[in-house]
Amino acid sequence: MKEKQLLMLPGPTPVPQEVLQALARPMINHRGPEFKSLLAEAAEGLKEVFCTRQEVLILTGAGSGAMEAAVSNFVSPGERVLVVSIGSFGDRFAQIAQRFGAQVERLEFAWGTAADPAALADRIRADVNKEIRAVFVTHNETSTGVTNDIPALRAAVGDHPALFIVDAVSSLGAMPLETDNWNLDVVVAGSQKSFMIPPGLAFACVSPRAWDVAAKCTNARFYWDLGKAREMAAKGQTPFTPAIPQVTALVESLRMIRSEGLPGTFARHLKLREMTRHGVRALGMELLAADAVASAAVTAVFPPAGLEANALRKMLLDRFNVVVAGGQGKFDNKIFRIGHLGYVQGLDIIAVIAALEMTLNICGHKVELGSGVRAAQEVVLAENA
Ligand SMILES: *Cc1c(COP(=O)(O)O)cnc(C)c1O
């Protein structure tokens, strides 16, 4: 018998049964009334998750496509942009902006730490001629398991006219993000993280100020033309053939998110984070991110000295069918990452920690069976006390 797999990645994440069933529906006309009403319901639900009164555009593609759109629609060739980077997804924004001809300046912070709002404020203050046209920030840096303080970073930019553009691919729906209240100009997200549906959709929310910039932007775009997407959305359509099953699934997953309620969803993700961190620490392993900046969506862990991260991952997969993510870039084979976002519950964390305990013992790193599990269980019981 094929064993159940425990998929603990920071995307793609597990897909609930209700959503799987929605994915299996017959195809419909994407220019017909049925799709129009699906799109309308999805767009309304997304507004709640984005905490916005603006339109949320539903795009077909990977999250990186929406990141590209967040560059090509708002930055013209030769313009200066500031990319705040704390890991590989921050670096991706810089690469995209470079490719689209921007003068890219990076404000980098050590991997495993969060961006310092004071450093951003200093750089913004120094821009007396207001040359910086956009500031790009990653909300949750998936490569390191660190969450940036978006309101503080937004405040650091203050009334400087630069657009404030946020990659919320792995944060939206797992942790608070308030597009309108936080005065964010462009926010992008993807389907395969906390939205609990398969890869294939990306989302973008654009402020009125950013739409004005887009209207004058001279960069080339065709597939990722957000103005065109907005025009078509007003007619209940998309510019090109959309991933119809994913839109059908999104309607279902948004219903599930609404029934849990965003505060409940955020509290669950925080509990999963605490269970993971306590469980892993009880096994003597170190975490990359400090508690104060630790992500509610993904936890990056150093294996014990002498054990390679990828060897441990392979053993987890081969022996227990547990899938965790590897390190990226400079952390390849140095860390492993446990994703705990989307359709994940406390018992999933208990199972991962239990598998880790056994795997460490198999690999010759003796740990007391039950010690990590117990630490995770105590988090649950303390919460219910
Ligand atoms: C997953 C992720 C992306 C990219 O999404 P793809 O769908 O793989 O292109 C971008 N940013 C962050 C923070 C992510 O976690």
List the helices and strands and how they pair.
Layout: E1 6-8, H1 17-23, H2 33-50, E2 56-60, H3 63-72, E3 80-85, H4 88-99, E4 103-108, H5 117-126, E5 132-138, E6 140-141, E7 146-147, H6 150-157, E8 163-167, E9 186-190, E10 201-206, H7 208-216, H8 226-233, H9 244-260, H10 262-282, E11 286-287, E12 298-302, H11 309-320, E13 322-326, E14 336-339, H12 346-362, H13 371-384
Parallel strand pairs: 1-13, 3-4, 3-5, 5-8, 8-9
Antiparallel strand pairs: 2-10, 6-7, 9-10, 11-12, 12-14, 13-14
The structure holds pyridoxal-5'-phosphate (PLP).
List each distinct ligand once: pyridoxal-5'-phosphate
DSSP E strands, number: 14
pLDDT < 50 runs, ≥5 residues: none
Q: Cα distance, first to last residue?
A: 40 Å
Number of domains: 2
Report the CATH C-level class of the largest domain.
Alpha Beta
Q: Provide the CATH superfamily of the largest domain.
A: Type I PLP-dependent aspartate aminotransferase-like (Major domain)
The averaged pLDDT comes out at 97
CATH third-tier fold name of the largest domain: Aspartate Aminotransferase, domain 2
User: Which radius of gyration do the C-alpha atoms yield?
Assistant: 21 Å
Sheet with most strands: 7 strands, mixed
Strand residue percentage: 15-25%
Q: What is the helix fraction of residues, given as a range?
A: 40-55%
Helical stretch tally: 13
Computed structural class = alpha/beta
| Strand line-up in the sheet with most strands | 2-10-9-8-5-3-4
CATH architect. name of the largest domain: 3-Layer(aba) Sandwich
Instruction: Encode the helix/strand succession as letters.
Output: EHHEHEHEHEEEHEEEHHHHEEHEEHH
- Basic shape: globular
